[in-house]
Specification:
Elements lengths: L3 E3 L12 E3 L5 E3 L7 H6 L7 E3 L5 H4 L2 H8 L3 E3 L9 E2 L3 E4 L2 E7 L8 E5 L4 E5 L2 E2 L3 E2 L9 H14 L6 E4 L9 H14 L1
Helix pairs in contact: 4-5
InterPro entries: MBL_Glyoxalase_II (IPR051453), Metallo-B-lactamas (IPR001279), RibonucZ/Hydroxyglut_hydro (IPR036866)
Cofactor: Zn(2+)
GO molecular function: hydrolase activity; metal ion binding
Length: about 190
């Protein structure tokens, strides 16, 4: 099994990407919505140690109750007052074999975070930035373009230019020119 696998890669229903991260602490980054993620997890691993939410838009947390029930695991996120969040994320979180810094990156939604493992060169960007240099929507409730731009800048300041993997909330992951993808997203957010 790959270390990081998108369980929603072939799903045609409206959902977010759902990343299963294998290793010392098997974790799920976002639960997605509108598909049987529990069966997808069970086909790959015996259980989960953690569920980490990049933010609480419905397409990212729609399956959270099913995952909590099936695996007896808590969902952690930025805003513990949200019904999908059982516990608040600290400054770091262990996913697989790496510790990830939790970076608060609002602008798409107030509780949005990115997760970055410097030693592995991996970033989970949620809906902040996407492949091709696009950026998250700011026309939804809690969205704000200027805040999003500041969050993209914060992400650029936090990650190493040698970033090797950028896993986004929708669309394909970026494994070539990941840092440049974030730069392009910041430029695009300023233009449009």
């Amino acid at each position: 099994m790959p270390t990081i696998e998108n369980l929603a890669a072939d799903v045609t229903a409206f959902t977010s990407n759902v990343f299963l991260v294998a290793g010392d602490r098997t974790a799920l980054v976002d639960t997605g919505a509108n598909f049987d993620v529990v069966s997808a997890i069970e086909a790959r691993v015996d259980g989960l140690d953690a569920v980490v939410l990049t933010h609480t838009h419905r397409d990212h947390v729609g399956n959270v109750d099913a995952v909590r029930s099936a695996f007896g695991v808590e969902a952690v996120g930025y805003d513990p007052s949200h019904p999908a969040v059982d516990a608040e994320l600290g400054g770091t979180v262990r996913l697989g074999d790496h510790d990830y810094a939790v970076l608060h990156t609002p602008g798409h939604k107030n509780d949005h975070v990115c997760l970055y493992a410097a030693d592995a060169g991996i970033c989970f960007a949620g809906d902040l930035v996407f492949a091709g240099g696009s950026f998250g929507r700011t026309d939804l409730e809690e969205g704000d373009r200027e805040t999003l731009i500041r969050s993209i800048d914060r992400l650029l300041e936090s990650v190493d230019p040698d970033l090797t993997e950028l896993h986004t909330g929708h669309g394909p992951s970026v494994t070539t020119d990941a840092y440049e993808t974030i730069e392009r997203a910041g430029q695009a957010a300023r233009r449009f």
